[in-house]
Specification:
Jelly Rolls, 2 domains, seven-stranded antiparallel beta sheet, elongated
Amino acid sequence: MKREHSLVRPFQGVGVNLANWDFLGHTVVTSNYIRLTPDLQSKSGALWNYSPCLTKNWEVHVTFKVHGKGTELFGDGFAIWYTKERMQPGPVFGSKDHFSGLAVILDTYSNHNGPHNHQHPYLSAMVNNGTWSYDHDRDGTHTQLAGCEVRFRNVNFDTHVAIRYENDILSVSTDLENRNEWKNCFVVNNVELPTGYFFGLSATTGDLSDNHDILSFKFYDLDTDVTPDQIIARANIIPNAKTFEPPREHKDDPKPSMSNTKIFFILLFGMLAAVAVAIFAISYFKEKNARKRFY
């Protein structure tokens, strides 16, 4: 494990400074966890490593917890980054759009704009050369490399994700069932990532919220026969993935339908109005008939 790219408990420099890492936004550092966002609306936070990664082949293990009060609706999720840019907040899970590099996204809320055949939470990866935009309305499915359904929210044990990049092969595994063993999520060949980029993590909340906590970030150097010249040459390539899906046409979100509560009150008001009209009609005809008998 390389310490300059790693982050393990107990976290030192609580509240002000963090060795080898910067943080921004609503991030809170404690000795046991780093909270990127609290379980409150409209919050965002990020954590970025100081040092560029000069390793061609590497693996990172992230231990995290996502939890909150919501039982049916919650969001939005967090992302693990390896990018050219660092410390730039934005709309993609708390970080900038049109990034250059790799994003591994753990998305907890489904926007369901357009068809896709998976449930949430969902883990996916995106490689960007700086020209593509992450489309929240399509849950990023139009630019993802691959993905898998995951269940990690509101569990009473630590959850883990492993990202391995070796010989241009990107593989992502998880340990989300407290079994102390990795489960494969996906493997993608022919992924080209430069050296010299930065690791980071970010999260955001909107109308929905969750606590997004980072418990550790461990970096492992997998280089064996890589020369310094190869490391330098690798810094000049453009992020690329041969299996990158072409962007699909964007579709606007459908107009929201009325909630069940609103429908209930409309029906109730209609029934009360109908009853009131019936009572008025009965009273009117009774009074009219009484007048006829009087005359």
